[in-house]
Design goal:
4 helices; about 180 residues; globular; alpha+beta; 5-stranded mixed sheet
Length: about 180
């Protein structure tokens, strides 16, 4: 009997380690699919294409958002057909490897002095929140409002819905 008690006591630390490691590895049973992504470093061809469009400011002239009546719009593009449908301009569409990437493009309607400094996307299943961080381009705040174009090439996701959170000079902005 005493031998069995000693054997049981010797097995307890190993059993305890196994139970605790199970909790740590499984997150105590939570199934959290939320993760954060930063845009990838796009090829020169892709950057040049979107930077030339961004310089036009009015997205209806540039070839995107021609049929959009609202001032804010976001497109999630996961294949070449979606990109060709979204873009009606004359410039050559760049090659994007949609087996590896998801392209997010959009516009907001704000001050012409805003410049996008950083962005990230927090993904939760098929939903995502896109965080856009803007700063003014100079000390004078321009009162003229216009469409401001943004884009990001992200690692492939299954995102279907994107909500925007906009930050301006370090503070959350709500329009």
């Amino acid at each position: 009997m005493r031998k069995k008690i000693v054997e049981a006591l010797l097995l307890m630390p190993a059993t305890l380690v196994l139970i605790l490691s199970t909790f740590v590895l499984t997150g105590c049973g939570d199934n959290d699919d939320t993760f954060s992504l930063s845009p990838t470093d796009a090829s020169v061809q892709i950057r040049d294409f979107f930077n030339s469009i961004n310089a036009l400011s009015d997205m209806r002239i540039s070839g995107f958002f021609e049929d959009v009546d609202c001032k804010e719009a976001t497109l999630i593009i996961n294949n070449e057909n979606q990109l060709r449908s979204a873009y009606t301009g004359a410039a050559q569409i760049p090659q994007v490897d949609f087996s590896k990437y998801t392209l997010i493009i959009g516009q907001i309607y704000e001050s012409a002095s805003w410049t996008l400094k950083k962005q990230k996307m927090v993904v939760d299943g098929e939903d995502a929140t896109l965080f856009l961080y803007y700063e003014t381009t100079n000390e004078a705040v321009v009162a003229v409002q216009t469409e401001i174009f943004y884009w990001g090439l992200y690692p492939k996701t299954n995102v279907q819905n994107v909500k925007l959170r906009i930050y301006y000079n370090g503070k959350e902005f709500s329009n």
